[in-house]
Amino acid sequence: MRRLLTKVFVFMALISAVFATVFAADSKRNLTLESGKPLPAGGKAAPFSGPGLGNKLLGTAYVNSNPESDRPDIFIQYTEHFSWKIKIVYYSFEGNHSDGRAIFGQPIYVQHDIPKKYTPKYLFQNNNNKVYCIWTAPGELLYTTFNRDTLAFEKTEIIKFANKTGKQTSPVKLDGALAAIRHNEKAAELIFSVSTGNYMGEQAVRMHTRGNVFDPYDGAGIWRGELPKAYLYAVSTDDILKGPFTNFRKISLDSQPSYLNHGWSNTAVNLGSGREKDFVSGSVLGNLCYYRNTSKDSFIPEPMTLIPGPDGIAIRHPTVNPSPIAYPNHKTGLSDLLVSCEGWFYYYQFTGQFDKNDTPVYKLLGPALQHNADLTFGTLPVINVVDWDGDGKDDIIAGNSPGKVLFSKNIGTETTPRFANPVEIKTDGKAISIQPGYRGSIQGPLEARWGYTCPQVADWTGNGLPDILLSSSVAEHLLYVNMGTAKEPLLSSGQPLYCKGMPLFGTWRVRPAVGEINEKMAYIMLDDQDQVHLYWKIDNYNLEDGGKLRLTDQNYIDANYRYAGGTGRLKLQLDDWDGDGHKDLLIGTMLESSVPSKKRGFPSSLGNVGAMPLFLKNSGKLDLRGLPIFEKPQVFLFKGEQIRLLIHSCSPVASDINGDGKLDLLVGEETGRVMFYAHNDITLSGEILSNITPHCEWQKTSVDNSWHNNKNWWRNTPDSSSNATLGENCSVVLTKDKAYCKNLSIKNNSSLLISTNQILEVAENLTLAAPAHRNASIVVDGGILKTSDLLIKPSDNSRIIIKEGSIVTPKNISNKIQQYINESLIIAESTKKITLELDRNDHVVVSVSNI
């Protein structure tokens, strides 16, 4: 143990030395904190992070850089929250780090007016210096050309993309990654990823991650849904810009799928003589996969192998969904890999070596870099501001969605902070890394790599050193004891906290609030009813149940209006914001939070406004149990406007970060950045809340649950004027024998169950209007569904499930039958005649005839 301590002390000393040299602040850059803006990174070059939550590499091109002497620029796309518009940016190459990593500049936004149904997938540059981007929709390739003068992508051509087998032609789905192996200026192989199906499986009515009967695992702990498998396919063309595309074929072996998906991007690679046209794909769960091409003028790969690191072990990327593109090595010109994923972009260098399986060996150099970057901590950071290393200056400790805990040292001063590039905090020589695995996440094995670490830093043990208390996606509560010194912190491995002999339990992804109240150490979290709950410290690892906290109106404090995966997620913090000597409660919320009441709370009652930091003032009074009583929540305002921060939870802390004697507000937001709000720009608003806008509606009946088998909100008699909408994330059971409405629309992630002896009549239109990649479903299990028109908008997973003994009778259906994609939008579990037809708007009209 003593030897281990010595090694860690040396490690921390080396880190300090690195901070003082490599990450020294750039004297030419203005690093003054700007209120209402993200904290800047303190070094000249910092980890590269895109502007959105899911940033996807499209490809490389020489736009500002010189192909004779420089390396290429990169293009990235992401989806803007709330508008759901696809944004495209490019970053100029600006230099090389000493270890070979590329350094990029600031984002330059690219305009386009491409319809939403298309997604940009693959960008390339021809010898004529023109830059092209291929966009996809089901059965279509849309080509655009980059206009350097207007900084815009302009539409040039649309090509139908279908698989012809004999006399049959079926559109290709094209929802996965797309790349190309180029033979010359025109001839190429297009390679694309296709997934086998629906993650939730056929049990859609029970598989909504926000429903209160969500039951993801069976009695043996096995996922009730499916684990889709993704395979690579290819087509050949003599002209990549015009087609036609022939020789449609499956590339992946049946025995070598990628679970869930191949990531957002795949890439052709040049690994030297005889390997100029090989291929690399990513995977959701973290592997990089190699395909050795045996052909000079086609793509005929050997079986897939996993790419190893220098240690000979298959690479497991630091975070979820690694999606590679080839990036030329600055010395050899061979293909290094630039990898987008959740959080930072990473850089892998091709070592020039191959392992015993003839697979290229890649070395992870670390994050790609950016000049004049924002300080980022990976996605969904959960921040703490604390003097971690005893130098009198506030540093930042942050968790993130990949499950790490990071340390950013303040290399500035007490009044002018500058933050070094974050490094992982380690215990027992290994980085803290929470990984839920197959069973650990509420939302299923798709989230096996999302740890959602939520650290709280406090002197829990009372030895004068900051410890870390941590919860995460697995909803455990762990203590990492600081066994080092003030200047050289050293953490033990994480050990669970207990209450009444049971490991402390509650809802997931919650940052606990920790602090001294009335000379006792308090631990505040969300309990199993998703309400704010206080525990008192007995000793370092044991807690006493203090009870639920109350407001001055005697009500408990709810967290969310959703269930299952929609619970938890709050980021709690004790700080005396108003300086009255009593610790107030700061709460970071998400889009679906509803504090302090499921029926009436922030931010839900304000509409679709996004995550918000809240202030709950400590009234200064204690209840009969000795617990503090808090006033109703107020919203933080920045220069008179509500602070709204995208969708996922934000993490607020109060800190005098600039040393002016006033508490400022810092808030971690989902893209990885830390927003700074100066004290003088902050006010509070006790916004008057109305009841929550119904998230599941029927005839405008207000409801507060996502599961409605006890709600009387179906019409009992025919009514030609009533319209009904199942809003997002609803799982609804029809409980009346007969129900009627004029029009019914079911939106994304929502489902309706019609059971035996139940009848639902929809006088006009029944629409499953899910956007792409979202589930909308109706399950007819022994019941009867009558409607005039049944519309399913094209999407991955919208479906009708008809089980034995059920009847579905649309009236107005054309006799013309067309085949629509080689994939079921309807699942029939008994003998029925099913016909599909595309209408003028490319909606799928479904007709089901009973036996």
Molecular structure report:
The chain is mostly beta strands and 851 residues long. It has three domains: 41-201 and 225-371, Tachylectin-2, Chain A; 458-465 and 475-684, no CATH class; 723-822. 2% of the residues lie in helices and 40% in strands. It contains one helix and 70 strands. The strands form 16 sheets. Strands 57, 58, 60, 61, 63, 65, 67, 69 and 70 form a nine-stranded mixed β-sheet that branches. It has a six-stranded mixed β-sheet with strand order 2-26-6-5-4-3, with no helix packed on it. The protein is globular. The termini are far apart.
Low-confidence stretches: 1-28, 693-720, 811-847
CATH architecture of the largest domain: 5 Propeller
- Straight-line N-to-C gap: 74 Å
- Roughly what fraction of the amino acids lie in strands? 35-45%
In quaternary terms, these chains amount to single chain
**Which structural class should the secondary elements be placed in?**
mainly beta
- The structural domain count equals 3
CATH class of the largest domain, please? Answer: Mainly Beta
CATH topology assignment of the largest domain: Tachylectin-2, Chain A
User: Looking at the structure, what is the overall shape?
Assistant: globular
Radius of gyration, in angstroms, nearest whole number: 28 Å
Mean pLDDT: 84
Secondary structure: number of strands: 70
How many distinct helices? 1
Helical amount among residues, as a percent range? under 10%
